[in-house]
Amino acid sequence: MSTVAARGDSALGRAGAWARRAPLLPALIFMIIVTQLPFLVTLVVSFMNWNAYYPNDRGFAGLDNFQSVLTDVNARKAILVTVLLTVGVVLISLILGLIVALLLDRKFRGRSIARTLMITPFLVVPVAAALLWKHALYNPEYGLLNGLLRGIFGDSAPQKDWITDNPLISIVVALVWQWTPFMMLILLAGLQSRPMDVVEAARIDGASSWQIFRNMTLPHLRPYIELSGLLGAIYVVQNFDAVFTITSGGLGTANLPYFIYQTFYTAHDYGRASAAGVVVVIGTIIIATFALRTVLSLFQEESR
Amino acid sequence: MTTTLARPAATDLEIRHAKQPRSGVLLTGAAWIIAVLFVLPVLWMILTSFHTEQDAAANPPKLAAPLSLEGYRSFFDSGPWPPLANSLTASVVSTLLVLLLALPAAYALSIKPVKKWSDVMFFFLSTKFLPVVAGLLPVYLFAQKVNLLDNIWLLIILYTSMNLPIAVWMLRSFLSEVPTEMLEAAQVDGAGLVRTLREIVAPVVAPGIAAAALICFIFSWNELLFARVLTGTRAETAPVFLTGFVTSQGLFLAKVCAASLVVSLPVLAAGFAAQDKLVQGLSMGAVR
């Protein structure tokens, strides 16, 4: 109490602690009810035998669900796919995004048009983007990729079945296409907040472009790279749309969200689906504790 | 703050690149090539949507085929208006709810901060890390019990919880730029709450509200997993409607492209119109 009063401005903040808290409470209570309660239920159900197809078998299951999730081949595969998908998409789109951001940081005629073109993929609704890649680009009979091959090399051109041959890569490419603009936008904003007078001084002192990039630009960009990588990872880990649309989880592309969706929605195994959900959450918490620290430091810098 | 820095930076760059014209042309060329490559799939989608199904399915592709509205006609004949209306309702109402809850919360976290405000901020952020899929089952069972399945209000509530943390973070970051000395001065001058809000707070926060609204709208409009599991024929949203095109049967490429384009149009329009807001929103206010 006393610290609050001391920190608050003498003229403004005489109101009690509850008056300060009041505006916060609706949002806080809403979030606790809508996001924390369901998760608690998930936690409880994960220790239960509960399959909607066998309603009479409901009961306490101990760690059975966790055991079956962690030993199930499909579940393990789903964990691996999730990691590959997330790391692949985030890394590739970060690097591509950085290259594009550096290119767009220069002043040239039509730069804002190029930037606008560049962000278009991110503004296509994810399901629509996945449909576009699946049907209009990858399709072996009438997709653009095979169409271009035949258009350039004639009738003897190889006609690949892109999704069947490389299911996971097909999904990664479609997602990289959508997420590169996201990375680019944040990194470009970072580049444009560089103090250019220092860079100019270094240039006058004879520093090469590479030296400036390596020793000045990159350190300055670091928090932006971390932020965009982290935010991208949060969204890509949870990706459902692309996996659902492009392969419907087939061909070994089911990631954890899809696996849980299937266990719950198709197999109606509520106990196992919940256990898988808990596993995802634990994994996310481990990653997040490391990641959050870096993000928080960035936000604190920004707000001085 | 960053914008004032960015402006002299641009002129510096001009000077720098005036010195090295040849590599400059190459780099500009590279920028254009990459930008065009990235937009190409969308252009192809637009072009295909205006072809007849026969021409759309041609291999090699017929770029100069006569234009047709066949794809759009068959899309609009398949009843997309209720899902589009549902998406609009869910996105707009949840965005309004988010702002309604986030504005006071952000105020309590910045201008007159509660104790341990950073813990609260951390809590809001941590809910974004909680995979939505982990809460799906309880929400489904609850909705089943209270008869909220296939009800647009269920989605509105879920989308509000999905976007509220983003909005709180963004708005706090904007509100913390409100000069507290000016608030105090206004208080001393006897300015009323309304005037203080209008003249000191609003100019700083209005862009933040716009950015938050934009990003909440986009994320709600795009959402698929909840909508797919929790809605049926009545509350179906546009992305769920699009999943009807997942399996390929017969000639329907023009129709798919038309459908994808129409459903993406609101997001494309909003995003293009407010590109700088997009950056602020996506970075939750960390980047201005």
Automatic annotation (TrEMBL), chain A:
CDD domains: TM_PBP2 (cd06261). Its main location: membrane. Keywords: Cell membrane, Membrane, Transmembrane, Transmembrane helix, Transport. It is a multi-pass membrane protein. Pfam families: BPD_transp_1. The keyword Transmembrane applies. It is found in: Cell membrane. InterPro entries: MetI-like, MetI-like_sf. The chain crosses the membrane at residues 24-48, 78-104, 116-133, 168-191, 243-261, 273-296. Residues 79-291 form the ABC transmembrane type-1 domain. PANTHER family: BLR7065 PROTEIN, INTEGRAL MEMBRANE SUGAR TRANSPORT PROTEIN. Belongs to the binding-protein-dependent transport system permease family. This is Sugar ABC transporter permease. It comes from Luteipulveratus flavus.
Automatic annotation (TrEMBL), chain B:
InterPro entries: BP-dep_ABC_trans_perm, MetI-like, MetI-like_sf. The keyword Transmembrane helix applies. The chain crosses the membrane at residues 25-47, 88-109, 121-140, 152-171, 200-221, 252-274. It is a multi-pass membrane protein. PROSITE patterns: ABC_TM1 (PS50928). It is found in: Cell membrane. Residues 84-274 form the ABC transmembrane type-1 domain. Keywords: Cell membrane, Membrane, Transmembrane, Transmembrane helix, Transport. The keyword Ion transport does not apply. PANTHER family: ABC TRANSPORTER PERMEASE PROTEIN (PTHR32243:SF52), MALTOSE TRANSPORT SYSTEM PERMEASE-RELATED (PTHR32243). Belongs to the binding-protein-dependent transport system permease family. This is Carbohydrate ABC transporter permease. It comes from Luteipulveratus flavus.
